[in-house]
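Any chance you could type out a protein's amino acid sequence plus the matching backbone structure tokens because I've never seen that pairing?

——
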Amino acid sequence: MSATALSIVVPTFREAGNLEALARRIERTMRAAGLEWELIVVDDDSRDGIEQVVAELSDDMPVRLEVRIAPRRDLSLSVVRGMELAHHDVVVVMDADLSHPPEAIPELLASLSEGKPMVVGSRYLPGSSLDEEWGADRLLQSRLATILTKPLVSCADPMSGFFAADLRQLPVLSELRPIGFKIGLELMVRGELDVVEVPIFFKDRSVGQSKMNARQQINYLRHLWRLYLFRFGRPGRMVSFVMVGSSGLLVDIAVFWGIRWAGVDHRVARLISFWIAASWNWWLNRNLTFEERPKRRPGWQWVKFVGGSLVGFGANFGSYLALTGMLDLFQRNQTFALICGVALGTAANYAMATLFVFPRAGRRRKNP
């Protein structure tokens, strides 16, 4: 594919101060390369005067603005919206803070012309470089975040927000489920894309403030969790379910001993701690393990989950009694029997959760 026209998508939030400089550099680069282009600015309702900036730029450049208000402020969703609005099949995505060099766009397009669905501007290839102002702490965070993606993609810089792509080879945009900043990673994993990387110089912003904060770091972990579940399917979901259950066990123990410390009878404490731990597990499974499944009627869903937990507890305790009462091996090794009971109880809980508490949309009854 030889790209002669492209749509450049730039997501923004309070980046009005950088936009004119970025647009002018893009214009010079496109003119020199002889390319037809458009710049689509998708703003997350900044209210920082960006409408006026785009209006002035559009007098002599193909620049247009989309202000996205719903469903939530999110860079990745802004990029997806920009792709939906693109007039051309070739799309370049880049940040508005001038960290990504527009002058590298022709090189991205040259690699894209070799038939690859996506070309990434990489910070970590030989020949690439980072601004000295980009501190060691941010570099460490970026490297650690990249390591977490290794089971998902084969890419030196899957966290890059600077890439070119052929829309015709990307996954269906309406089926993407990104959250946060890493739309490139979302496309690579869900599209199972074979990507090419080219080295770039990554410059730190000089105007405005970085949007990376604790909330975005949490969003990244949530996004990564989604992608792991997508890539590894049922085994990944089972691991997630077990991890949630393990955290629930810690909650159960902490609540139990906290109530006991207050002088409450151990039987009452055990009853209360069970309900709190079961509720904890329901909430995490609802928002992590089975996040993509229907979330209607949360109260009824909670009742079913706690009921399923009681079934799992019955399988757990019942198998323990059966094993220790019928087989000398388990009578002599009661810890082994306990582990078997926990395993059977967890399996029962997982089956109940998958089939009845968080069923797929097609399995949900109209009147549960």
Summary: Strands lie at 5-12, 36-43, 63-67, 90-93, 118-122, 129-130, 163-166, 195-199, 201-202. The mean pLDDT is 85. The longest strand covers residues 5-12.
